[in-house]
Amino acid sequence: MKKLAFIFMISVFGLSYAQQQPKVLKTSFSKEALVQKLEDEEGKNITIQQILDQHKGKVLVIDFWAGWCRDCLKALPKAEELEKNNPNVDFVFLSLERSKEGFDKSLDRFNMKDKDNYWFASGWKNDFNNYVDLNWIPRYMVVDQKSSIAKYYAISPEDPEIQETINRLSK
């Protein structure tokens, strides 16, 4: 009986904490978040600001994921469908793999090589992820044509607000 109560407590309290939507839904990035460095597939450093600059003028969906994340892998087909259904929208995939080797293997294993991929070499806890209240993956954000945050928090590519935001911005 104690074991059952313990499992219940973990499932209720653990999941509610992990997927808790932030109280403040931010609409812009801080200066510290924008200078956060990631690595591209070749191992070259790039900042969040540089990534946003590459996509300025376009609607951008940011997908936080990792190959070790079961929920991310379950969501991958729906994320690909979202991308396919929105050919005029740019998609960027930010990996939370634990190593560069893991990043490279996941890109190959999950056929991600033809996508815009970056890896947080600094790990999960960094200025960007802390600023955007990253507490769960997968996580999705929509950024407008001027690099402002249009949809701050979604944990599924099937969240209808993602498509609604894309549609509103694409008018």
From TrEMBL:
What InterPro entries does the database record attribute to this sequence? Answer: Thioredoxin-like_fold, Thioredoxin-like_sf, Thioredoxin_domain, Thioredoxin_ResA/DsbE_sf
Annotated Gene3D superfamilies: Glutaredoxin (3.40.30.10)
Q: Which UniProt keywords apply?
A: Isomerase, Signal
Q: Thioredoxin domain spans which residues? A: 27-171
Question: SUPFAM superfamilies per the record?
Answer: Thioredoxin-like (SSF52833)
* Molecular function, one GO term: isomerase activity
Question: Where, if anywhere, are coiled coils annotated?
Answer: none
* Highest taxon of the lineage: Bacteria
Signal peptide span: 1-18
Q: What is this protein called?
A: Thiol-disulfide isomerase or thioredoxin
Q: Could you read off the lineage of the organism from its UniProt record?
A: Bacteria, Pseudomonadati, Bacteroidota, Flavobacteriia, Flavobacteriales
